[in-house]
Specification:
The protein is of the alpha+beta class and about 110 residues long. The protein has helices at about 25-30, 60, 65-70; strands at about 5, 15, 50-55, 80-85, 100. A hairpin with a 5-residue loop joins strand 1 and strand 2. It binds FE2/S2 (inorganic) cluster (FES). FE2/S2 (inorganic) cluster binds near residues 38, 44, 46, 47 and 71.
């Protein structure tokens, strides 16, 4: 099963087994990773699942969709590598993915 590492703003790491087909948000919620509230349940409507994708993984995770971009306008500290984790589907290729959490989410 692909492993995803979530790194809190304070540096604390959480390595989670993420089933293929779930989203990066769902795997985090299931393992109670702090900082991913996912208030809207994955509907791309809250931005509380905001993460920064590690530079090495940006190509594999793809680009923000238009809807995702509009939602990120409401998030804090948005960077070029910002994504909504509910919009990233776990695939076998994402084994080893590293995402960081914004300071404002903990
Ligand atoms: Fe609400 Fe991702 S869970 S936008």
């Amino acid at each position: 099963m692909p492993k995803i590492t979530y790194i809190e703003a304070n540096g604390k790491e959480h390595v989670v087994d993420a089933p293929v087909g779930q989203t990066v948000m769902e795997a985090a919620v299931k393992h109670a990773v702090p900082g991913i509230d996912a208030d809207c349940g994955g509907a791309c409507a809250c931005a509380t699942c905001h993460v920064y994708v590690d530079e090495a993984w940006r190509e594999k995770t793809g680009e923000q969709s238009g809807m995702e971009q509009s939602m990120l306008d409401f998030a804090n500290d948005v960077e070029a590598n910002s994504r909504l984790s509910c919009q990233i589907k776990v695939t076998a290729e994402l084994d080893g993915l590293v995402v960081r959490l914004p300071k404002s989410q903990h």
